[in-house]
Amino acid sequence: MSAPSTTEHQVRTIEAGSPPERFARGWHCLGLAESFKDGAPHEIEAFGTKLVVFQAQDTGRLHVLDAYCPHMGGNLARGTVKGDTVVCPFHGWLWKGDGRCAGIPYAHRVPPRARTRAWTTLEENKQLFVWYDPEGAPPPEGVTIPRIEGAFSDEWSDWTWHSLRIDGSHCREIVDNVVDMAHFFYVHNSFPTYFKNVFEGHIATQYQATAPRGDMTAAETVSAQGDTRSVASYHGPSYMVVYLDMDVDGTTVETAMINCHYPVSADSFVLMYGALVKKLPGMTDEMAAESAAMAAQGLAAGFEQDIEIWKNKTRIDNPLLCDQDGPVYQLRRWYEQFYVDVADVRPEMTDRFEFEIDTERAVKVWQAEVDANLARRARAARGEA
Amino acid sequence: MRPVTCEECGTGVLVEKRSLPHTSVQWTGPTDRCPQLAGGGARIEGCTRLRASIEREVREGRLTVAHDD
Question: What is the pTM of this model?
Answer without folding.
Answer: 0.94
